[in-house]
Amino acid sequence: MDRTQGQPGGDSVLRAAGSAGTGTGSAGSAGAAAPAAPAGGVTRVVTLTTGDFTLTVNPVDGSEIEPLRPGTGTQRPAKRDPESRAAWEAAARPPALPGSTTPARPLLQREEERERLERLLGRGRSVRLTGPAGSGRSALLHSVAAVCTGLAPDGVVRLSGYGRQQPQELLYALHAAVYEAAGERPDRAELLRRVRDIGAIVLVDDLELGGAALDELLRATPECAYLLAATPDTTAPSEYSHLEEVFLGGLGRAECVQLLETLTGRPLTEEETAWAGDLRFASEGLPLRFVQAAALLRRRDELNHRDAPDEEDEPGVFEGRPREAAHIPLPTLAEGAAPAELLASRVSESARAALRIACALGGEMPHHAHLPALVGDTHADAAVAELLDCGLLTPVGPRYRLSSGVARQLEEAGYGDSAAEEARTAARHYAWWTGHASVTPERVAAEADAVLAALAGADVVAAVMLARTAAPALAASLHWEAWERVLRSGAEAARKAGEVAEQAYFHHELGVLALCEGRLERSRAELEASIGLRGALADKRGTVAGRRALALVTDREAAEVEVSPPLRLAAPAASPAPAAPAVPAVAAAPVPNPLARPAAPPAPPVGADAVTQVVPAIRRPGTAATPPAFSKVFEDAFPPVAKQEPVTVPVPGVARPPAGEPDSRRRTALLAAAGALAVAVIGTVVGLAVSGPDERTPSDPAVSSTPDTDLSADTGTSDPATTPEQGTDGPTAATSDPAAPQEGEPAAEPRPGTTPGPRTTAKGRTPTRNASPPAPGTTAPTSPAPGGEPDHPPATSSSPTTTPPTDSPTGPPTTESASEAAPSSSG
Predict the structure, then answer these.
(1) 230 has which bridge partners?
(2) Distance in Å from the first CA to the final CA of the chain
(3) ∠ CA 518-524-525, rounded to 5°
(4) What pLDDT band is residue 342 in, cutting at 50, 70 and 90?
(5) Is 128 helix (H, G, I), strand (E, B) or coil?
(6) How far apart are CA 221 and CA 691, in angstroms?
(7) pTM for the structure as a whole
């Protein structure tokens, strides 16, 4: 049978829940209970005010949110009086435990630190008290709070920073401790306005904030003086926080011995004193280690007293019973430094069962009223006091949890082997307890850490049940950080379990929570997911609730857009207008232009904004025309375009493009044409260089060259050229050369310094070259005049010496060569 259904434990928890329901609360009085429970109980429907919205927490169909009605806006609440502050502070302390017999723990060797803290806080300075876990930070804070009661107008406020990673939750806790704001959670802007007027000494234990987050907390409350207790591994404050640093170390040897004698109730022996000195060296004098060492000594005294023979016993009465040794040795130094396993072996069975539950819940110890139902023993509520006396538990805010290092030591001893079963049992128990009508939302909020730990370790079915019942209670208690964590865990568990309806509920609640906190994008995403799931289930009531919340998101987005419009990328009025894109022009020439863009549709003429466009040309204006020798390169790609005047096309709102900026397509075409031109020039130069005369001496008769054309420098006419032809027997001379011998005359031998005739090879053959007819526009060859002279006088050279042939492939032959070749042929 499940232990959560046991009659003794269930009745005990029910009685405790009923008594807790009569306690003082803030948010619980703001809501009205209405019968309609899905599990046969009573469903709490609570109405809250958050910012500009009215939130109705409905556990059945999901929370409903609507704007505040006109004229119902809340004003700033009044601050608490001293009696109300005292009641609030008493509720924030750990509860009194039944059966506690531990003597009061003295505060030793802390007078100097306490006086310094009191002096700094009296001056309005904020202090950060840094010390390792188990150094007595909580005890020192309690002592300082007693002496600083009347220093601030709003008194002393004690808060717990354990598990609070954001400064916003600490600000809301401070607001609830100072103001009488039942059922109201202000928005961030209103919260900052209210806490700015708080003047109190705020003691924060187990602080986990640092850096910029801590700076935000200090800036939000300039009239408060803070005493922040943190461990050395907590993030350090920034250099702009202006916090005083006070470090808390271990106790001295004499103080350690005094603490042991106070907690054991007797003076120590010499052996125990020496053992205490060694333990002080091993533990660096941490008070928590000596609280646990005192528990070991007390258990040792009890065993020695129980096993010692009584002088009043008659001889022979207990002779058959085996007796143990009357003297139990002291624990070893290792057992004194890590005493969790040894201490757990000497406590009751109910206390050991409670330790297993705490290990399964990540170190969180449930309220002592829950232990009878969780353990299955009606007297298990005394186990918390027993463990607290041993130093295995430490107070954290309004609850208890395992001391530093105890959870690790117990897990190594095997106390965490049944963690899955214990977490499932705790999840089912809390699912029943949080859904009970007699349990107030404040009581659920005080147990929020244990509920979250059970939710994390339970199976998906138990997790969905627990999240479904705990979420509305946490929402009504205004503990919204825990509410969000429960909703996210429940949504994940519902997805894994395939519970579509529960998944839709969790997404709806997450959307409402995001809307209350001003996260509109997250709210829209969650609400749309919920509406889609509920639409698939044909849940009309849930779909209507989701669409109403989504409409509020849309309205709030529209309001924010009107207040702060998005950044527009418009140029200032004084700056010049940017260059407008080129507008295609209407070509007047009948020849189509392949580079021209399609004509734009006609627009109404605007006189001031008219744009002048020019039909794109092949070359830029003002540049030299393309050489005629290479005009063939552009004929195919760029047909000739007739020159025309610029055409003005009026386009409204478009500025005239800047002068000298060519079109991109025109630039691309010009670059391609330039590349083709360069390739053609290079190819021509290389070809002529290969086919031209080599650098040989004039006396070499093997190879000779004759230019095809001869451009006269004086008359500008071209001389006839000779084209040699190759025969089978020998070379034949062409008649186009005036210096060549005529028919029937012997060929003249070439003279040194003259241009030789047709090229001949070493074997007497001439290279083959096809004769081509003269090109149009050239002069036909003529025969020399009688006497062996040409028709026109030969050009004379300025120098009587002959010039050797040059390497230029395009230069004309020298005139002296022609004049000297004529007499040779006539002779």
Answers:
(1) 130
(2) 145
(3) 120
(4) very high
(5) strand
(6) 96
(7) 0.63
